[in-house]
Amino acid sequence: MNKDIVLFHEKALNTNFPGSHQISTETKRLFIWDDQYFKRRGYALKRLVFIYETLCQMEIEIVQGEILEVLHLISPEQIITFFTADTEIKAILAQLSSFYSVKIIKPEPYIVTGK
User: Fold this and answer.
1) What distances in angstroms separate CA 43 from CA 37, 68, 89, one per listed residue?
2) Cα separation, 66 vs 86, whole angstroms
């Protein structure tokens, strides 16, 4: 059984995220709805509704709870997620990397320059 998970964040709410073809279709896809995280970010209700409605259109599991606690319960071998320049998300991923193997998929460049 594959113990890897794909962890989606609100900056990558797209199952066709550039580079996502690298992920096995059998890998569990997950979004953790962390109320405390959203409060720290200061997201308005309209933004939260957008995130939730987008998640409902995706074939991923939504779990409510604190991000680190949920991941400790799942205990994945590897967390696969998508690149973002968002500093708050990058800080969370850095924290997760002290407990788990974290693979960040970066989008493939549209244009490759010079050789």
Assistant:
1) 9, 20, 14
2) 19
CA dist., res. 6 & res. 71, Å (int): 11
What would the two tokens of residue 69 be? 């606690």
CA 17/CA 13 separation, integer angstroms = 8
Q: Supply the pTM of this predicted model.
A: 0.86
User: Whose CA is closest to 103, among 21, 2, 1, 4?
Assistant: 4
Report d(CA 21, CA 101) in Å as an integer: 20
Q: Which residues is 5 bridged to in the sheet?
A: 28, 79
Span 62-85, pLDDT tens digits: 999 999 999 999 999 999 999 999
